[in-house]
Amino acid sequence: MSITLTCRTVLCSVLVVAATTGISGSAWSADPAAPGAAPTAVKGVPGAPGVETAAPVPAGDDTFLLTIFLRHDESRPLPKINDELRAQGFYKAFPPPGIEVVSWYVMMGIGQVVTLRVPANRLREVNRAIEETAWGGYRTEFYPTYDYKAVAQHMRETNGK
Question: Which domains does the chain have, with CATH numbers?
């Protein structure tokens, strides 16, 4: 079994355990008031001046985090990729209206990494927006995601002594 498949299997197992044991959102979310903590959810363009930050959504709201890697095709220059994305309607269709952008970063050597908060019943809609408008400009990878920062900090504080 490959390392990637093993990591995916472990991640999915942890998500199932969290969902079935009723772990609360506060147990899995970073403390937004902690020094140096990143915003937990961002509406609009991340890092832009005056961007509104939303409060963490509690567990049990039927949403999950989805991280999408939009990998650049390095055989083509960026202006050509952007022209193709524009022609396919990517900038209008993604993310679909009402889907919260938690973060959107450029990862040098990879492309763009987008984390969305997705209502479970809208996963297909997000997938279709990618299939219909991003393919060709990007190679895509999807990963269910959760915020582990607070848990890791707690583990370091209690077990690092």
Answer: 24-159 (3.30.70.920)
